[in-house]
Amino acid sequence: MRHRKYPFIVGFLIVPVALYALLVIWPYLQTFGYSLTDWSGESTVMHFVGLRNYTALFSDAVFRQALLHNVLLLVFLPVITILLALFFAFMLNVGGRAGTGGVQGVRGAAVYKVVFFFPQVLSIAILAVLFEAVYRSDGGGLLNGVLLKLGLEDPQHPIEWLNDPGLVLWSILAILVWSGVGFYLVLFSAAMQSIPREIYEAALLDGAGRVQTFFRVTLPLLWDSVQTAWVYLAIAAMDAFALVSTLTPGVAYGGGPDYHGEVMATYLMRNFLYFGKSGYACAMGVVILFLTLILSAIALRVTRRERIEF
Amino acid sequence: MSTPIKDPTPAPADLGPAPRPRKADAPARFADSGGVLNVFSHGFLALWAVMIVLPLAWIVLSSFKTDAQIGGSAWTWPSHWSFEVFVRAWNKGIGGFFLNTVIVLAFSVALTMLFGAMAAYVLARYEFPGNRVIYYFFVAGAMFPVYLALVPLFFMVRNLGMLNTYQGLILVYVAYSLPFTVFFLHSFFRTLPTAVHEAAMIDGCSHTRAFFQVMLPIAKPGLLSVGIFNVLGQWNQYILPLTLMQKQSGADRDHSMLTQGLVNLALQQGYAGDMPALFAGMTIAMLPVLVVYLSFQRQVQAGLTAGTLK
């Protein structure tokens, strides 16, 4: 069976590898190259400017503000999402104690899991249009409608979720959390189910309560998954492009009001397609890429613990 | 084997007053707060479920409202239950976007699966120099946010003369779906037994035939999982069509994908004066995803979390 092995291997690999190299790898590499030029995007003329794009970035006030917003998202998005997802996963897998005994989730756990996960399969574009309607700045918006109904806000001055400089970023964050919790819930659930039941039962026999079981048994055994979730959420926090560009006010790709909703990705796209500063935009892309990589590496290193085999 | 444990507490409702036997170091407060915690956590689960379902149900309901009702309070109950609004939305462009998306997906998902399975199979089952390099080459692509490659990708597709064409978008979708598909199927092919394949080879089967007639049928569960993932992922793709499927001239046909078309309609007030049709359009866009998700939710959850589990 050794004969004709290499023609077969080459024949099977050539199309996927060529397609992938041409449309994925090559554009990524080109981004690095363009970041060293003053390319405008439309013309084919470009000059090598060395690292000038990168130095210009650091004195760009809008970019710094966008960076600050990404850092805020980077701190709050993983923390809130992981805490909620861990809590829900624990409730749905080992939270129920009553009735039959043993270790199991609360009643209706399967239904909850299906419902919580659903936002994850919706397109980010659908989410944008959906929350456009939810965040509407009058009583016709769902959120303001609910708050009015509960008597928590003044009908004359409904909250302008996406136009209020102090609220716009948190409104975006809320959408990210809303849609993300289900995914991490399922991720943690899968990991929890791979923990041998006997460990929980032993903890139960020793008289551990739910809170103790969670902190002393579940969390340490889930640490790998939590780390993975952290990295994934960090990448999501560095992005946020689709939501910000469609939901927030602004000339091109949102970012308003007055840069209070700006993130690096929207600023990048505006420089690229609207201001015609493609080289500058590519430099921004490279900075974002390295920030993401560095932060992921730091997150993995800081949270590293001895792995518990079970 | 897990032994069912007789739990001294009968039901969650009267969990509070019944103290459990516990060790000295186990704080008694947990037993006392059991009932409260139960109510709290069940309430929180239910609240989160409502927060997921409410906006989605609200959107569906809104498609049956009139413009005046949508502009008014969020709490008005729809008055005319006619499906005419869906026909109207369909004719206003959603129908065209829907068909575009179906055409592109029919080819892109099929090709993604074919090329992904071919590459993953060869990489998982054949030893040859450069095997690991090509594997990591594929996996690395999943690490970077897509918008980093958008600038060069746009010009690449333009140079190929494929902007705003089905075949251009199909090739791009295939290329950007390959990393996850190869990664997932690679580990899947590794777990399959080698005996059947060896038997086929001894019987004089060629490598190619062994793949298509022996290995692919065995790999059906894995192919189904990743296939559904690709259908959902490509159906929901937003930023790629937004960049690549813009009309190039006035005479150019509109090849917008569903998500992109929907956002454009929402943002450009294409539905000004006809909000119900916009909501109906969103319902149309969500329905296929909902149906696919509910019918295959086990595979969807397995597929989405597969890449992140150890």
* Percent in strands of chain A: under 5%
What count of helical segments of chain B does DSSP give? 13
**CATH architectural type of the domain at 35-108 and 185-302 in chain A:** Orthogonal Bundle
Give the SSE string of chain A.
HHHHHHHHHHHHH
What is the residue-mean pLDDT of chain B, rounded to a whole number? 78
Mean pLDDT of chain A: 83
Q: Any overview of this molecule?
A:
The complex is a heterodimer of chains A (310) and B (310). The longest helix of chain A is centred in the first third of the chain and has 35 residues, at 61-95. Chain A is 67% helix and 0% strand. Chain A has a domain at 35-108 and 185-302: MetI-like (MetI-like fold, Orthogonal Bundle), CATH 1.10.3720.10. The mean pLDDT of chain A is 83. Chain A starts with a helix and ends in an 8-residue tail after the last helix. Chain A is mainly alpha-helical and 310 residues long. Chain A has helices at 5-34, 52-58, 61-95, 109-117, 124-134, 142-149, 168-193, 197-205, 210-221, 223-239, 241-247, 264-274, 278-302. Chain A is globular. With 310 residues, chain B is an all-alpha fold. Chain B folds into 2 domains: 1-62, no CATH class; 84-306, Orthogonal Bundle (MetI-like fold), CATH 1.10.3720.10. In chain B, 68% of the residues lie in helices and 0% in strands. Chain B has helices spanning 28-62, 67-71, 84-125, 131-140, 150-159, 166-191, 195-202, 207-218, 220-235, 239-244, 258-267, 275-295, 297-306. In chain B, helix 3 (84-125) packs across helix 9 (220-235), helix 3 (84-125) packs across helix 11 and helix 3 (84-125) packs parallel to helix 12. Chain B is globular. Residues 1-33 of chain B have low confidence and may be disordered. Classes of the chains: A mainly alpha (310), B mainly alpha (310). The interface between A and B is large, with 114 and 111 residues.
